[in-house]
Design brief:
- Helix content is 46%, strand content 14%.
- It is α+β, with helices and mostly antiparallel strands.
- Strands 3-2-1-4 form a four-stranded mixed sheet, with helices on one face.
- β1 (2-5) and β2 (9-12) form a beta hairpin.
- α1 runs antiparallel to α2 (37-54).
Length: 92
């Protein structure tokens, strides 16, 4: 799966990592819904760090279509709320 972090670029991420990432996504969804700014900030950072750690960066000149787009690390809670689906940012 190709994942884009807005403002940073793309990484290739093995689908086997989705379960781990979905745990963070569920936390982020709950914090976003409750308005927990501190928790939201912490969990968004952890989610993006995990994607960077588990994924392999694609070259900057790569034009692969992104299957998943994640917000930038400095995204606001309202901005992320607008991106959320019923089950969070990640599929599943």
């Amino acid at each position: 799966m190709i994942v884009r972090i807005m403002g940073e670029g793309q990484v290739r991420l093995d689908d086997g990592h989705l379960a781990e990432l979905n745990e963070l996504d569920d936390e982020l969804l709950a914090e976003t819904r409750s308005g927990d700014e501190e928790g939201f900030r912490r969990t968004l950072g952890a989610l993006l760090d995990a994607v960077r750690r588990l994924g392999a960066p694609l070259p900057d000149d790569s034009l692969e279509p992104s299957e998943l787009i994640l917000p930038s690390p400095d995204a606001t809670l309202p901005e992320v709320r607008a991106l959320l689906k019923d089950d969070g940012l990640l599929p599943g």
